[in-house]
Amino acid sequence: MTTVNVQEAKTHLSRLLERVEQGERIVIARAGRAIAELAPLSRVEIVFGGMAGEFELDDEAFVAADADIAAMWDDEI
Which residues constitute the domain of residue 6? Predict the structure, then answer.
């Protein structure tokens, strides 16, 4: 992992970002103390409904709810 100071990061940001795009992680330091890290984003493909059919819910689990909680839903505000 490469470490650069703030001034160098400001001067060469475009070059540093190109390196990050290639998978490199770069630490930005102020007075020798690491304060930030440039790292590539990792995207996760989200598929809505991807777990459909994987779980079964027992309707009885919701019937026996705590009386106080059920009363909160029944009361009108």
Answer: 2-38
Q: pTM of the prediction?
A: 0.56
Q: How many domains does the chain have?
A: 1
pLDDT tens sequence for the chain (77 residues): 899 999 999 999 999 999 999 999 999 999 999 999 999 998 888 888 888 888 887 766 666 667 777 777 776 55
Instruction: Answer yes or no: is 26 within a domain.
Output: yes
List of long-range contacts for 28-34, beta carbons under 8 Å, 24+ apart: 28/3, 28/4, 29/3, 29/4, 29/5, 30/5, 30/6, 34/3
